[in-house]
């Protein structure tokens, strides 16, 4: 199994106590509608009382009709009562489902929303390591499992066991203790066989689910990278990887199916023995004259009434175990710790001027691979500072730390003198606008994607942002105009068009602090210069941090930081750095030479 898939499943709780935790975690969501829950339980008990009374009334009808012809009287009241009891049994069950429906649906909604919010609250590290398909599968199965778990536990298992106990008491009182004993022994044996064999085969079900999520994740990952697959002609390779996951799933699924056959045989045998003993005992009583024909019919009716739902107890138990597994997987997402959390006493960021200060910042994504070493610099309010350097120098990490995707290992980052670890993440990120290097758009209209920068903005404001990003003419030239759907991750637009949409929505957000992370890297030279001039004009009124590889885009910056291996090796304005004749001057010369050759 790939590391990413393995890491998602190794943290899952083991069966046993986890089943109890799954049910207990659902309880608060159900108890919100305690009135409906209690009414549903009352209807459930009423339905079962009516059901167990039906064979008793049927016995009385038969015994009345079994008298000699001279004494025969039509038991009209008993027959009407028989009909009313059957009607009550069915109607109470239907009313119970109607009453409880809102409870189940609301619980599914609340839990799904909690997981969705938790996924957005988890760190960037989690989302870089996660497998989208597998996580989606876990949430989908978990949501459905809530309905199954509640339905089976409350409205299948509980009434079935309640009915069997009531029948056992009736048989014990109306007939003799042997009938009650056979009923309880059959029930006990059935439950023991079901629990033991189901617990044994749960390992195959869990493994099959793990492999199902892995296969689904691989399929989604392959489809998301459709173009890469095509570039390298690896369709057969991807199909082979997918089929390997499916083959392993098929093997485990067959084991699960065989173990199911064994379980069904054990359950059927237990019921057959119990039914045979009960009918034999009742028939013997009729022959001996100790029981009436009505008693035999009553026993037979109870057997049908009891063992019909009991025959599904194995299926219900398996479904409950499966649902508990699925719910636990979903709740495991809720239990994952947040790497970056607001402190209990965190206050909103108070942006006065917008000064940004890095003070002796050191950081590593992994302990064995440090990225930044004792980095210190200040971006004065309303000024522009650029960070340049080769790939892997740590430039983009500065932006991620400022946006607080991660917390620094040492040192601190302050905005207007406030440590960003001491303020709320919402207020921090509201003050910062980011134009990333790799822009990913929603599979929606261009208007939606630009308006996403500030969803409550007016249409005129959205149009102004598009104009400032030099994309308005392009949008208006499209057949569907603003309603043009950009495709999944924005794949229907070119790299430059996507980047201009990203710039437009950041401008619409109108942040105090602006981060441009290789913001014009995907644009052609002419477009880049036009947008760069606009960005520099916008940056003049904001505190701006520009991450750049192309030095021509930062020559106007108030200060340029030259980074190598996570350290600032040079700093100053463009002319000063050229005069130093150091790393920056060498980079400038190489890029100028490359541009000249391209020209």
Which tags fit this structure?
65% helix; ABC transporter transmembrane region fold; alpha/beta; 599 residues; 2 domains; disordered N terminus; 20 helices; six-stranded mixed sheet
Describe this structure in words.
This protein is of the alpha/beta class and 599 residues long. The chain folds into two domains: 8-335, ABC transporter type 1, transmembrane domain (ABC transporter transmembrane region fold, Up-down Bundle), CATH 1.20.1560; 343-431 and 558-599, P-loop containing nucleotide triphosphate hydrolases (Rossmann fold). The protein is built from 20 helices and ten strands. It has helices at 3-9, 17-31, 34-65, 76-121, 124-129, 132-174, 177-224, 226-231, 235-288, 293-310, 313-335, 395-402, 425-430, 446-451, 459-468, 472-477, 495-509, 525-539, 574-580, 583-598; strands at residues 356-366, 369-379, 384-389, 410-415, 418-419, 432-435, 513-517, 543-548, 559-564, 567-572. The chain has a six-stranded mixed β-sheet, with helices on both faces. Strands 2-1-4-5 form a four-stranded antiparallel β-sheet, covered by helices on one side. α4 runs antiparallel to α6, α6 (132-174) packs antiparallel against α7 and α6 (132-174) packs antiparallel against α10 (293-310).
Summarize the topology.
Layout: H1 3-9, H2 17-31, H3 34-65, H4 76-121, H5 124-129, H6 132-174, H7 177-224, H8 226-231, H9 235-288, H10 293-310, H11 313-335, E1 356-366, E2 369-379, E3 384-389, H12 395-402, E4 410-415, E5 418-419, H13 425-430, E6 432-435, H14 446-451, H15 459-468, H16 472-477, H17 495-509, E7 513-517, H18 525-539, E8 543-548, E9 559-564, E10 567-572, H19 574-580, H20 583-598
Parallel strand pairs: 3-8, 3-9, 6-7, 7-8
Antiparallel strand pairs: 1-2, 1-4, 4-5, 9-10
Helix pairs in contact: 2-11, 3-4, 3-6, 3-10, 4-6, 4-11, 6-7, 6-10, 6-11, 7-9, 7-11, 9-10, 15-17
